[in-house]
């Protein structure tokens, strides 16, 4: 329930978050090109690490 007494969108079973209304972009949230490039390189490195990772061995129960 939200503060208005109405069910929130999460309880309505929509499965996705709603975007907030309005065009009130905050300039401090804009990333410069260098920061964006560093972030993309980090994401690429993590994806490559995950691609190379082997799944763990299944846990076997003692008999």
How would you portray this structure in words?
With 63 residues, this protein is an all-alpha fold. It contains 1 helix and no strands. It has one helix at 33-52.
Q: Characteristics of this structure?
A:
mainly alpha, 0% strand, 63 residues, flat
Tally of DSSP β-strands: 0
Number of helices: 1
End-to-end Cα distance, whole Å, is 48 Å
Roughly what is the average pLDDT, rounded to an integer? 77
Low-confidence stretches: none
Helix % is 25-40%
- Strand proportion, as a percent range, falls in under 5%
Q: Describe the sheet with the most strands.
A: none
Question: How is this fold's topology laid out?
Answer:
Layout: H1 33-52
What's the short version?
This protein is mostly helical. The protein has one helix spanning 33-52. The mean pLDDT is 77.
